[in-house]
Amino acid sequence: MAKLELTPASIAREMADFHARLASAPDTLRRLQDVKIGTSPRDAILRKEGIVLYRYRGPAEAAHTTPILIVYALVNRPEVADLQPGRSLIAALLERGFDVYLIDWGYPDGSDRLVGLDDYINRYIDACVDHLRRCLERERLTLLGICQGGTFSTCYAALHPDKVERLIATVTPIDFHTEGDMLSHLVRHVDVDALVESSGNLSGDFLNALFLSLKPYRLTQAKYIRFLEQIDDVEAAAMFLRMEKWIFDSPALTATAFREFARDLYQGNKLVKGTLTIGGRTVEPARITMPVLNIFARDDHLVPPASSKALKGLIGTDDYTEAELPGGHIGVYVSLKSPHSVPVVVDKWMRREAVGHNAV
Amino acid sequence: MTGPTGKDYGSWLNAWTEWLGPAGTGFPGWKVHPRGAQAADLGDLAGAYSAFAEVMKHFAQGNETGDLGSRLAAAIDRIKAAGALGDGDRLLRAFLTTASMSPFASLFSGAAAATDGRFSASFLDAQSQWFDWPAIGPYREWVDAGKELQEAFIAQRRAAGMLSERYQQAVEVALARFAAFLRDTSGEPITSLKLLYDAWVEIAENAYAELVMTDAFAADFAACINATSAVQLKLRGWQDRIAGLTDLPNRSEVDALLERQKMMTREIESLRAALDDMRQALTTSDKQERPTSKAGVRSKPKARKKPPASSATRASKPAGLRRQVARGRKRETKPGAGEFDIAEILPDRD
């Protein structure tokens, strides 16, 4: 039997269909115009040097009693947690009665080049936590870290355990030297100091190029072909555009934060080794004695599950829960219809129920 | 190649800028420039997929013997062998290596440029001779700086060439596997162009990922980034020289100011924290002395350790801070401009 059952006629038919979709694309795109993301209503409650702490307004009937502070990564924007109604982690948490706060790191510019991990963790996160502790009259808060924000939250919890009630890490890199970590492998021998000295802040374009180069065929070709295949589905096209808008809205990484994160974590793997110092203090994960929920994505190509799972062996508590969710690094935040989605798992865990799916 | 000559430093600078790329990122794995930003343009999309379709159509209607899979596989083998290529072979090669939207198109065009002479080894060797002797004369400092920049650039081109070869290896492996896949008649047959395209993407992506994960690739990747950094640092030195002539601050001077500002900010925060502690102590002491006084009394959480007063919101408001100090311990801290009192928007939690 032949491997290919294609004829010139069948190929011509497929191409005619493809070109018909291509021809209809401008109409669909014109109808959609510019899509909006991050539309959940919110109020700025604290500003500090370009950093903004937001409180999200939930449904009036919800009993917002448990605050959760979301700490996002410096890479990309936090709107992925609030992409659109029905695909919003933030809205889903609000619907479940949580009082949701988020730190927006803003868009660093050249004047922020010296802002480093000490600033982000010991000044900005700490300022937000203290502000909420004071305003909410609570001694401790629950932190929900996303990706690099999970690493920050982990470091913060280790440095300030008296201020953290619970730690939720989602798709969080902890061990940066696990097998199959392409990003870590790529930067292993890069002279980070020279790169930072020569480039200053790492531009969003540079970061995008780096991430695209991890899966160049899929991310620069195949996904757009797939987009055209679905061009007649206006909602699918709108969703695609929202993702495009989010993924290429890339703030620069400050020179100092990049230098420290790349050198100490990606290259030095110091968090796992117990030699990471931030603001002159050693980050000791064993000081994390509060309950910990660790959520990771099965098909994550940016943060391999093994990297996240390393958290378990480092912390100083047995009150530790793992949840492996289906999907990729981004998919876990936008595929919320699954009974094992991030907000469902968080909700159950916060209510101290078994999270059910692959829980340890 | 037309290039910079003699003491025409402006033309040197223009050449560096051109070589570094308009965005100046110098990123070796992906050329970031305005044209690259059009990668998602629908015309490019159509071009890429149409090129794929044209290749498949060509082989589907070809007169060669064997089924379509075998004919494609044979063409891939001919491309790999770099022998005489037919029309279909050239179409296929164009799609696989230089088609619009190909992640490696710019790299391969760069490799072609090297072969054609623009950045060939012989060209780079010849350029190297330019800085083979010490400069003399009143402008020797400038000349030396220019030479250092060129030397760094040549090293970068060599490193980029090495990395480009790695990427070509990935494509060659992908081609070989694609050919083997097409010859393999086991498994489900491919019944559509899209399925064939998906199979190619899967095979090419896996071949690429395997290559990237080798130590050799990581070393060449880093070498290219590091060489690019070196060029940019030399370029910085050149720009600093020009900045000095026009009384503009250079990078290190701006960094020094930022460093000073950072230290001052930390000091102010530390002083504010100390003031907060003192105010807190005075408030406690005051209450102990006047337990029946109603002035300044406000509700507090029961039997809870009070979180420290935040200095964050007041970091940029020294005037407000002075007023608070002047008012002593009777006043609550008020949020500043652009801030909101959370009590105004939070529901009653009790």
Task: Describe this protein's structure.
The complex is a heterodimer of chains A (360) and B (350). Chain A has 14 helices and 10 strands. With 360 residues, chain A is of the alpha/beta class. In chain A, helix 2 runs parallel beside helix 14, helix 3 (117-136) packs across helix 4 (148-159) and helix 6 packs antiparallel against helix 10. Chain A starts with 7 loop residues before the first helix and ends in a 10-residue tail after the last helix. Chain B is mostly helical and 350 residues long. Chain B is built from 12 helices and no strands. Chain B has helices spanning 9-20, 42-60, 68-81, 87-98, 105-116, 121-128, 140-183, 193-212, 215-245, 251-289, 318-327, 342-345. In chain B, helix 6 packs antiparallel against helix 7 (140-183). Chain B is flat. The N and C termini of chain B lie far apart (78 Å). The interface between A and B is large, with 82 and 88 residues.
Overview features:
heterodimer, A: 360 residues, 8-stranded mixed sheet, two-stranded antiparallel ribbon, 42% helix, 15% strand, globular, B: 350 residues, mainly alpha, 12 helices, 0% strand, flat, disordered N terminus, disordered C terminus
